[in-house]
Amino acid sequence: MLEIEALPAFTDNYIWLIKNQTTKQAAVVDPGDANPVLAWLEKNKGWQLSDILITHHHQDHIGGISTLKAKTSATVFAPNNPGIPNKDIIVTNSQIIHIIGSLLRVIAVPGHTLDHVAYYAPTQKNMPARLFSGDTLFSGGCGRVFEGTMEQMYHSLQQLNELPPDTLIYPAHEYTVSNLKFAIAVEPSNNLAKEYLDKCIGLRESQQITLPSTLSMEQRVNPFLRCDQVSIIMTIENTLRLHPTDAKEVFSDLREWKNKF
Length: 261
Fold this sequence. Notes:
It is a single chain. The chain is of the alpha/beta class. The protein folds into 2 domains: 1-93, Metallo-beta-lactamase, Chain A (4-Layer Sandwich); 109-261, Metallo-beta-lactamase, Chain A. It has 9 helices and 14 strands. The chain has helices at 34-43, 59-62, 65-72, 150-161, 176-186, 191-205, 215-221, 230-240, 247-260, and strands at residues 2-9, 13-20, 25-29, 48-53, 75-78, 89-90, 96-99, 102-108, 117-121, 130-134, 137-138, 141-142, 168-171, 213-214. The chain has a 6-stranded mixed β-sheet with strand order 1-2-3-4-5-6, covered by helices on one side. It has a 6-stranded mixed β-sheet with strand order 7-8-9-10-13-14.
């Protein structure tokens, strides 16, 4: 059974450490900094870092690759972007990859960047499915659209929205509290979002992380997965004085609003 641990990096990044207790092999997702990973390996003697998974080319996700590769010879899985160093296996949409005794499916999710992928581990041995979503889907929110289009990002999120509802969501950043504050501004009548925000504020005040979330929770509180809701459309019309004609336009209006929130 795979175990997942968060290694905090920088101010709000998480490097996700995936562990196989049987083989004592580990993989990491988006090591923007090598030091948290090396510190974990030093503390946990006998473990081998065998794989590095990269979701996209931004520096806070790739900065530790070269050092980790030099020290561990781990296999680097990454999308085909020239800015990502030390790639061993270039991943593409729907590809199945094998890491530390488990199979993961690659899901192309352009929008935040054009090369962005997510890694999906299906349900196994009574464990729910897990999604390493990088900077595409956050708890309560989604990533900014830097290189792709709003339509690409909308469709990428719709792909993820079709995964099993009990899928555990592992984003790359601790943005939950700020995202939920925006979600409540968008949908003031969403009492579950208010309760979830209170819970997450309590977790952060106790120095605990708010992740993982579940897709079912995101479907109920995350406005970027709720673009067909009348309550959200009404807020856009009344607050922004805009009149979106479909869910893609609702998403675009929300994302532009969040950029300035």
